Amino acid sequence: MKMADQTTDVLVIGVGGMGSATIAALAERGVDVIGIERYDIAHANGSSHGNTRIVRRPQYEDLSYVPLVEAAIERWHEIESAIDTRLYHAVGSLDIGPRDGSIFTDSKRSCLEHNIPHEVLDGSALNRRFSGYDVPPDHRAVYQPDGGFVRCEAAIIANVGRAHAAGGTIRARERVEYWSAAESGVRVETDRATYHAETMVVTAGAWTGQLLESLSGLLEPERQVMGWFQPATPSEYQPNAFPVFVCDVPEGHYYGFPIHETPGVKLGRFNHRSETGVPSTLDHTPDRTDESLLRSFTDSYLSAEIGPTQRLSTCLFTNTPDEDFLLDIHPDHESVIVGAGFSGHGFKFASVVGDILASLALDGATEHPIDPFAIDRFD
Q1: Which residues fall within 8 angstroms of residue 17, CB to CB, at 6 or more apart?
Q2: Element (H, E) at 87
Q3: Nearest Cα to 378, choosing from 219, 236, 238?
Q4: pLDDT value at residue 99
Q5: Which of the residues 5, 11, 222, 251 has an alpha carbon 20 to 30 A from that of 102?
Q6: What is the largest CA-CA distance in the chain?
Q7: What is the pLDDT of residue 267?
């Protein structure tokens, strides 16, 4: 039996990293807001789980991200102070690759153009300073001491707590079945109720293309697998000894973290097996092929003998054609705000993306520089 119709100012669809931050930002501005999540708070079916997410001040992807990541780091610290819970761990970051490769050269350029403190290390110097690594001597790395990781599930729970404390409502285990928009606002039907709102914010991760069909061609879900592997010398992979990293090697583009919460050093490979499709068709169960693909890095580029696998977990990236975000008002519906297509490098920005989407929902604009993330760039 469905509940009676619900009316609210803003309805947020999807309560992961971006959605939870948006709901909290709206509630703290005194807005009547309801968040709808098809799974649990937090859950392991989407893009916002696995204990940790990398934060890097240099942005080799595009220099336009640097002001956003600076604002995001500041916002993470503000949130931590307000809730008295540590979310951000500054363990340092390494952008590693061939000396003429884009990861190293563009990361260095990002630091130089934005006056970000950093050091350039060759592979041998990197291996000496951080003994857990064994990267090729002729590789180069940008070391940035302020980078690190955010505790992703903890951040979602913290944002939900902020939202609740400010009067927001979040409904988990509720699935959107249909929505429509008109001049008067939006109408959303779920398997539990019908909602009427002035504005709808869609932060549904890999499901966004199914909800916003006109944008589905810009949003491609991709299966990723993360792995945790137990090193023979755990002391070399603790947060005080092993910075987070991205690394370009012949086997692919890998990323990783020190040991934290889950036993074992954690790593993944971008575009893991290039498996794409709608979320329901992608296999969420990791297998031996996934494990071997990740171990090809641990066996070649970490110095310690790597012992038993401790954990494997599947997550979903949602990639745009240019691998940049969509942060915009829907081109066909002024009452629909879109936060999507974070392409595997979005969670670090969640703290400030929540503020951006809240401002777009309330004012139609934001003070943050988001022009590069407009939907009409694909026109």
Answers
A1: 47, 48, 53, 152, 155, 156, 346, 347, 350
A2: none
A3: 219
A4: 95
A5: 222
A6: 66
A7: 97
Report which residue type is found at 267. Answer: L
Burial 275-291 (b: 16+ CB within 10 A, else e): ebeebeebeeebeeebe
What order do you get walking across the sheet with 93-98 strand by strand?
119-122, 139-144, 93-98, 244-249, 252-257, 265-269, 220-231, 306-319
- How far is the CA of 263 from the CAs of 42, 230, 234, in angstroms? 20, 7, 9
Residue 302 is given by DSSP the state: B
Kindly state the tokens that stand for 140.
């180069």
Joined tokens for residue 143:
């070391």
pTM of the model: 0.97
Q: Is 332 helix (H, G, I), strand (E, B) or coil?
A: coil
Residues in the chain with pLDDT values less than 70: 1
Segment 11-53, tens digit of pLDDT: 999 999 999 999 999 999 999 999 999 999 999 999 999 999 9
Of 313, 374, 311, 369, which Cα lies nearest the Cα of 340? 374
State the Rg of the chain over Cα: 21
Quick one: which of 39, 28, 33 has its CA closest to 6? Answer: 33
Those residues with Cβ within 8 angstroms of residue 91's Cβ, 6 or more apart along the chain or in another chain: 147, 148, 149, 239, 240, 242, 243, 244, 258
Strand-pair category, 252-257 with 265-269: antiparallel
φ/ψ region of 84 (left if φ > 0, alpha if ψ in -120 to 50, else beta) reads left
The Cα angle at residue 365 between residues 38 and 359, in degrees rounded to 5: 45
Q: Which two tokens stand for residue 125?
A: 């110097």
Please give the pLDDT value at position 225. Answer: 98
Output the CA–CA distances (angstroms, integers) from residue 220 to 3, 209, 216, 308, 348, in the order listed.
Answer: 34, 8, 7, 33, 20
Q: State residue 183's pLDDT score.
A: 87
What gap in Å lies between CA 366 and CA 339, rounded to an integer?
13
| pLDDT reported for residue 2 | 81
Q: Which two tokens stand for residue 173?
A: 């285990």
Handedness of CA 28, 40, 177, 284 (dihedral sign): positive
Cα separation, 341 vs 338, in Å, equals 9
For residues 293 and 51, what is the distance between their CA atoms, to the nearest angstrom? 21
Reference 267, options 253, 280, 278; nearest CA is 253
